[in-house]
Write a structure and sequence with these properties.
InterPro entries: ACT-like_dom_sf, ACT_dom, Beta-grasp_dom_sf, NT_sf, RelA/Spo_fam, RelA/SpoT_AH_RIS, RelA_SpoT, TGS. This protein is α+β, with helices and mostly antiparallel strands. Helices cover 46% and strands 16% of the residues.
Length: 748
């Protein structure tokens, strides 16, 4: 059972006496100067007269003192207690205490803490979040919102302490309201306490939530525990006496206590194992605290020597700590009278860590898919909480944390209290497109916290954003300009680009048809294009979609032309493009051929047994049109006919060109090719490109990427290995279909 304890007099005591009583209880816990600041904060609190709080039915003074007292029991510093006292004080909102006075009297961190607490108080209708369709994600986003608003981790401690006091005081509320508060507590606040490693708050919030959400089960378990309490207490006392006697004989210094059980943990174990309370081994439990790890294992030997170990009920979390760095030895034995008994053995340091400490990896039980930067921020929060009382530099480390761990994301709310995650510095327009593309496309204005703001206004965690739309509104091309600052997310920019692409469909269709006709004429392809038949090869349903894609630059016209038909006069077209080659008199009657290092055959006209190598500048692959260049002492270098180095040869060097062509190509050969991919920069772009390479069984042997922030584009150069030109063209077609890709071409 949960037994709330406060260093406060009875509720009917007048406010002045209550304040004096509480301050007296803190004598000795805080230095004189800090105690004096607490007294001044209580003096401010004494002016906080107002209506009774509707949730607890108590005055603001009593509520603030109760919250601060919970924090004092957790050993928090005086600034945290002052923030709890001043939070929500009517004197602050009425302007009776100025910002300057607050900073001067209570320290520079207090103003920001109180402001953050006020912003958190403005968040309403948490129940709307809980009832949402994708409930777990919204609950997670709400927890992140609370952590995101709080630049100072101590703000979250105040929020959790206030939630504990609220849960202790809601028994007289209407059942419906009480159930909603308990549900929020169980799904949002208790996991948040777990995330920060504040076990005492976590356990109490869980027990109190179960009390109101599952009252029947709570009463049944509590009754069973109460009915057997006297018997259990006598039993545990006998066990502890036996252990103390044995430890004294062996000279092991140990502190032995009966371990308290939390009703929620019993209920969860009953649910998880599908058993009744009689089958729960740890209702009778003792905890042994020793000085060293060696003593832990010595104590374990004593326990197993006294009573028989129950199979499969031993866990060594010292040798193998839990994912949250929890360490302890857990065992279950058949104790006196053959009754099951759980024993936990740990050092004093391990116990301090388990009760009050922090653990880094909370995500192994919750929050799957969290981002690394957010986890790093929470880890730091927990580390600070663990060491806050260990050295005098804790305040300096907290200030360094604020500067170093600035959140990478913000969490804002819709008018319906749905929490939306956005990158830092996001705008209302980013928010609109995060909700739905149509809302973004029809956006004409925005309200943040009920005030009209520009569309390039920077949002902050905790803001409530409302998008104003018009039925016939449309995106502006200015939105895509990085200089105007309307959009910061790649998702939103891509949605705007897609809208303009769709609006210009007719124009692109006309331009694409003309481009394809000119390309077919240039290649000498006289076949009539049947685009509906080849459209599926490019992941389109209709031929018109293919033409529009050509017109807007999403699809290379050459790739489509080659699917229509073969050129009738390739050699004549090559002669138009390439430098004239003076034929050499053959020295042999039959052509020779050379097998290069990759296993491909190249035939050099009129030459036998001549060393050849592929030119690294243009990297020809079968069956690119190729030509040979006779080098001095290195045989013949094979170039593509359209290689820039060949095109710009001087008149004297052209004499060294020689005809070459591909022989039959073995299927296992592969050739290196440089590809350039230019696309709109966005999260996941490199992953999408890599998946195309993986699906096509392409080996990537080199990668170079560059992002240009001014134009929001990414340029990626890949060196890959392909079997032949057809293989390469199929790959380029697939790359062109990736959303946001503007250009795919060979790079040389």
């Amino acid at each position: 059972m949960v037994k709330p304890l406060y260093n406060l007099p009875e509720p009917d005591t007048d406010d002045a006496e209550t304040i004096r009583h509480w301050l007296d209880s803190l004598e000795g816990d805080y230095p004189a100067d800090e105690h004096e600041r607490l007294a001044r904060a209580c003096d401010v609190l004494s002016h906080c007269q107002g209506e009774l709080r509707p949730d607890t039915g108590e005055s603001a003074i009593r509520h603030g003192l109760s919250t601060a007292d919970i924090l004092a029991r957790l050993g928090m510093d005086h600034e945290t207690l002052i923030a709890a006292l001043l939070k929500g004080c009517p004197a602050l909102s009425a302007g009776e205490l100025s910002e300057t006075t607050r900073l001067e009297d209570f320290g520079p961190g207090l103003a920001r803490m109180v402001d953050d607490l006020a912003r958190i108080d403005q968040l309403a209708n948490v129940e709307a979040v809980i009832a949402a369709k994708d409930q777990p994600q919204h609950e997670e986003n709400l927890r992140r919102l609370l952590l995101g608003i709080a630049e100072d981790v101590r703000v979250v401690l105040v929020v959790l302490a206030e939630r504990v006091h609220l849960m202790r005081a809601i028994k007289d509320l209407e059942p419906e309201r009480r159930t909603k508060i308990a549900r929020d507590t169980q799904r949002v606040y208790a996991p948040l306490a777990n995330r920060l490693g504040i076990w005492q708050i976590k356990w109490e919030l869980e027990d109190l939530s179960l009390r109101y959400l599952q009252p029947g089960e709570y009463r049944r378990i509590a009754k069973l525990l109460a009915e057997r309490r006297e018997e259990r207490e006598h039993y545990i006392a006998a066990v502890m006496a036996t252990l103390r006697e044995k430890f004294d004989e062996l000279g092991i210094g140990a502190e032995i206590t009966g371990r308290p059980k939390h009703i929620y943990s019993i209920w969860k174990k009953m649910q998880r194992k599908a058993v009744d309370i009689d089958d729960i081994f740890d209702l009778r439990a003792v905890r042994i605290l020793v000085d060293s790890v060696a003593d832990c294992y010595a104590a374990l030997g004593v326990v197993h020597g006294l009573w028989r170990h129950i199979p499969k009920e031993f866990d060594d979390y010292i040798a193998t700590p839990k994912g949250n760095f929890y360490q302890s030895l857990h065992t279950a034995v058949e104790g006196p009278e053959g009754k099951a008994l759980e024993v936990q053995i740990r050092t004093h340091a391990m116990h301090q860590h388990a009760e009050f400490g922090v653990a880094a990896h909370w995500a192994y039980k919750e929050a799957k898919g969290h981002d690394a930067e957010f986890q790093r921020r929470v880890v730091w929060m927990r580390q600070w909480l663990e060491t806050k009382n260990e050295d005098e530099a804790a305040g300096e480390r907290l200030e360094r944390f604020k500067a170093e761990f600035e959140p990478a994301h913000i969490y804002v709310l819709t008018p319906q209290s749905k929490v939306v995650e956005l990158p830092k510095d996001a705008t209302p327009l980013d928010f609109a497109y995060a909700i739905h593309s149509e809302i973004g496309n029809r956006c004409r204005g925005a309200k943040v916290n009920e005030r009209i703001v520009p569309l390039n206004h920077t949002l902050h965690s905790g803001d409530t954003v409302e998008i104003l739309t018009q039925k016939n509104a449309a995106p502006s091309r200015d939105w895509l300009s990085p200089h105007h600052g309307y959009l910061t997310t790649a998702r939103a920019r891509n949605r705007v680009r897609q809208w303009f692409k769709q609006q210009d469909f007719d124009k692109h269709l006309h331009e694409g048809r003309g481009m394809l006709e000119r390309e077919l004429a240039r290649l000498g392809i006289g076949d009539k294009p049947h685009l509906d038949a080849i459209a599926p090869r490019f992941n389109f349903k209709r031929g018109e979609d293919v033409l529009a894609a050509i017109g807007r630059g999403d699809l290379a016209v050459g790739l489509v032309a080659r699917q229509v038909g073969e050129p009738k006069s390739e050699e004549s077209k090559e002669r138009e493009r390439e430098p004239e080659i003076k034929p050499r008199a053959p020295r042999h009657h039959k052509p020779g051929h050379h097998k290069n290092g990759s296993g491909s055959d190249v035939v050099v006209e009129g030459v036998d047994d001549l060393m050849t190598q592929m030119a690294p500048c243009c990297k020809p692959v079968p069956y690119d049109p190729i030509i040979g260049f006779v080098t001095r002492g290195r045989g013949v270098t094979i170039h593509r006919r359209d290689c820039g180095n060949i095109r710009h040869l001087g008149a004297d060097e052209r004499e060294r060109l020689i005809e070459a062509h591909w022989a039959d190509q073995p299927g296992s050969s592969h050739y290196p090719v440089d590809l350039l991919v230019v696309a709109a920069d966005r999260k996941g772009l490199l992953r999408d490109v890599s998946s195309i390479f993986s699906d096509a069984d392409i080996d990537v042997i080199g990668v170079e990427t560059h992002s240009e922030r001014s134009t929001d584009t990414a340029s990626m150069r890949f060196t890959i290995e392909v079997a032949d030109n057809a293989h390469l063209e199929r790959l380029m077609i697939k790359l062109q279909q990736i959303p946001g890709v503007d250009e795919v071409r060979r790079f040389h």
